[in-house]
């Protein structure tokens, strides 16, 4: 048998005529090497060093650092606006704010020993105020009683001298007058004594009494030395060399560190385990060679910095460091807080300062007031803005508010959690005031330069060396050009202050240019932006609700028939509008189907109205197939009428 050979068709290779386009590889973070995403790992580029990284790495980096928020590449500080652009709102307001509270608590805890004397004075002041209020409460009933006595005395006095009573009663009236007068004098003397006690409490030095707990204040009093923190519960004070706390006034045992009583000689028995714990603590701590305060080493090199006496010393040798570079982080913190990097004084005007008003009055003769008034108004508003920057927006930049919070914490007005919250809020206010002060400083530098153009005017050829000698036409032209720059500067300063107001949601001053004279006003632009946003949302809602048929509900017990099918529908299906109600609703199932059909149609049209202008979706296509809104409403109205 011959075998049959079949030819199999050869496989053909199909090649595409279109060129193959390689997709670019997605960008990834240079730190975690994960691809960038629109929200969670969005790409963040530094404005200064142009380095990029994902927001997740930046958030993780900020939680590991105790410094202020800064770029992880070039270490330039971030303001709150930049931080909100990089991180999410939840991270900034909750996670990072809680981290900053812990950082501020650890930072301010090192400054508590130096504020103990201030806390003691504040406690004595409160005690004195309590005593004064108690004395005032004692004076009130005495004054009321004396008023009643004097009222009776005046009635008897009138009756005695007008002889309204009988002759035999005149002697009794006189005796009663003398008795009432004696009672009034006794009460008046008692009131005067109590008021004198109030004055003695308020101004003890005027009566030759000791102050500050029994010792007169010395002009150069030595700084007190503190050994360690008080171990008494809920006390934030520190122990002196006598092992006495200045806040709660309790003594502690020098062997076991356990709190005793307010009397140093009271008997106390140390426990063995407490003594062992105290000895272990003494091994981990060493006293400062200058002031004797015990300092514990947590980490790092052997160079230490005493925050009480500001002395660098070596942990190994126990001697004061006299040479070399001080690189302890507490030293840099102290320099930052006490002059090393202090903010510039707002009263320090650069470039010689603003000239006096009488100097600017030397204008060319026949100079029209219309050309000179804006310049004088600008000089006046600069002085007013300078006064506002010094008087209003300086309270949170220095350490006054922070020290007040720390003193209240030492006195036990609130717990540590609330202390951290207050420190965090105060830091936000400090950043806010610092940013506003930077805006004021930039305005002052440019304003001084503009004003000095008039003050130090001289022509290019050197013939005119004073603005007073300038011809009137040239002077008017010069002032008009200068006024244009002034208006531009004011617009820029107002825009910067408006941005700061929206960013921090608080009121800022701005220069009002309405009218002939400039004026300073204060406004919270964040409220204005919020009001505009709410008004826009209300307008959008009104436009939706004002559409014909929006929110229409069928009447009770009404029969609803679905709308007529469009002309493009199948000709075999019968038109519901042409059918009778009886045939359309022959059964409950058909009636329910008709109601559901109308509800779906209404929901589809409503979705179409509320949806922004985007690519058509399935709901939009369904609404287009069902016809126009007018046809839908006509069908529903017809069904309701039937």
Question: How are the SSEs ordered, and which strands pair?
Answer:
Elements: E1 43-45, E2 52-54, H1 55-64, H2 80-86, H3 89-109, H4 116-162, H5 167-202, E3 226-229, E4 238-240, H6 272-284, E5 285-287, E6 294-296, E7 303-306, E8 311-314, H7 329-337, H8 357-360, H9 369-391, H10 400-410, H11 416-455, H12 472-504, E9 508-512, E10 519-523, H13 525-545, H14 581-584, H15 588-610, H16 618-626, H17 629-641
Antiparallel strand pairs: 1-2, 3-4, 5-6, 7-8, 9-10
Helix pairs in contact: 3-11, 4-5, 9-11, 9-12, 10-11, 11-12, 12-13, 15-16
Compact overview of the structure:
This protein has 642 residues and is mainly alpha-helical. The protein has helices at residues 55-64, 80-86, 89-109, 116-162, 167-202, 272-284, 329-337, 357-360, 369-391, 400-410, 416-455, 472-504, 525-545, 581-584, 588-610, 618-626, 629-641; strands at residues 43-45, 52-54, 226-229, 238-240, 285-287, 294-296, 303-306, 311-314, 508-512, 519-523.
Molecular structure report:
The protein has helices spanning 55-64, 80-86, 89-109, 116-162, 167-202, 272-284, 329-337, 357-360, 369-391, 400-410, 416-455, 472-504, 525-545, 581-584, 588-610, 618-626, 629-641; strands spanning 43-45, 52-54, 226-229, 238-240, 285-287, 294-296, 303-306, 311-314, 508-512, 519-523. It is mainly α and 642 residues long. Among the domains are: 43-87; 114-207, no CATH class; 357-397 and 406-529; 558-563 and 579-642, no CATH class. A hairpin with an 8-residue loop joins β3 and β4.
């Amino acid at each position: 048998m011959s075998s049959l050979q079949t030819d199999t068709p050869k496989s053909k290779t199909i090649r595409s005529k279109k060129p193959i386009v390689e997709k670019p590889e997605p960008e990834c973070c240079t730190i975690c090497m994960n691809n960038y995403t629109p929200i969670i790992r969005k790409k963040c580029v530094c404005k200064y060093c142009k380095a990029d990284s994902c927001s997740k790495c930046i958030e993780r980096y900020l939680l590991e650092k105790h410094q202020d928020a800064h770029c992880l590449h070039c270490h330039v500080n971030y303001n709150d606006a930049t931080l909100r652009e990089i991180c999410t709102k939840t991270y900034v307001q909750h996670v990072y704010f809680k981290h900053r509270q812990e950082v501020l608590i650890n930072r301010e805890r090192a400054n508590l020993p130096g504020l103990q004397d201030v806390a003691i004075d504040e406690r004595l002041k409160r005690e004195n105020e309590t005593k004064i209020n108690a004395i005032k409460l004692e004076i009130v009933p005495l004054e009321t009683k004396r008023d009643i006595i004097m009222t009776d005395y005046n009635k008897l006095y009138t009756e005695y001298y007008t002889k309204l009573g009988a002759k035999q009663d005149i002697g009794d009236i006189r005796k009663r007058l003398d008795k009432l007068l004696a009672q009034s004098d006794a009460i008046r003397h008692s009131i005067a004594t109590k008021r004198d006690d109030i004055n003695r409490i308020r101004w003890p030095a005027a009566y030759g009494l000791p102050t500050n707990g029994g010792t007169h204040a010395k002009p150069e009093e030595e700084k007190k030395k503190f050994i360690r923190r008080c171990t008494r519960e809920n006390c934030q004070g520190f122990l002196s060399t006598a092992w006495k706390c200045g806040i709660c006034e309790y003594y502690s045992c020098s062997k076991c560190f356990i709190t005793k009583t307010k009397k140093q000689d009271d008997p106390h028995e140390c426990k063995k385990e407490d003594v062992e714990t105290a000895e272990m603590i003494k091994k981990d701590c060493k006293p400062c060679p200058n002031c004797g305060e015990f300092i514990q080493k947590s980490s790092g090199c052997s160079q230490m910095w005493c925050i009480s006496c500001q002395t660098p010393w070596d942990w190994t040798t126990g001697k004061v460091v006299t040479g070399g570079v001080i690189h302890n982080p507490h030293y840099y913190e102290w320099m930052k807080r006490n002059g090393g990097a202090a903010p510039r004084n707002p009263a320090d005007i650069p470039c010689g300062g603003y000239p006096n008003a009488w100097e600017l009055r030397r204008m060319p003769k026949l100079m029209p007031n219309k050309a000179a008034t804006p310049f004088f108004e600008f000089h006046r508003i600069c002085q007013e803005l300078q006064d506002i920057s010094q008087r209003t927006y300086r309270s949170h930049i220095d350490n006054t508010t922070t020290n007040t919070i720390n003193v209240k914490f030492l006195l036990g007005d609130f717990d540590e959690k609330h202390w951290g919250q207050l420190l965090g809020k105060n830091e936000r206010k400090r950043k806010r005031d610092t940013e506003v002060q930077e805006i004021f400083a930039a305005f002052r530098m440019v304003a001084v330069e503009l004003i000095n153009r008039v003050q130090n005017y001289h022509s290019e050829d050197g013939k005119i060396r004073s603005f007073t000698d300038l011809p009137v036409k040239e002077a008017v032209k010069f002032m008009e050009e200068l006024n244009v720059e002034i208006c531009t500067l004011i617009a820029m300063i107002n825009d910067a202050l408006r941005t700061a107001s929206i960013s921090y949601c608080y009121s800022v001053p701005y220069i009002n240019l309405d009218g002939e004279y400039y004026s300073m006003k204060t406004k919270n632009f964040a409220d204005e932006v919020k009001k505009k946003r709410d008004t826009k949302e209300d307008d959008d809602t009104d436009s939706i609700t004002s559409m014909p048929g929006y929110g229409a509900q069928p009447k009770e017990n009404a029969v609803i028939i679905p709308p007529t099918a469009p002309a493009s529908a199948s000709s075999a299906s019968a038109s519901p509008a042409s059918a009778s109600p009886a045939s359309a609703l022959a059964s409950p199932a058909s009636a329910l189907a008709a109601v559901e059909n109308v509800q779906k149609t209404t929901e589809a049209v409503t979705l179409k109205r509320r949806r922004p202008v985007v690519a058509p979706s399935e709901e939009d296509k369904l609404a287009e197939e069902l016809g126009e809104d007018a046809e839908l409403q006509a069908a529903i109205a017809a069904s309701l009428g039937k």
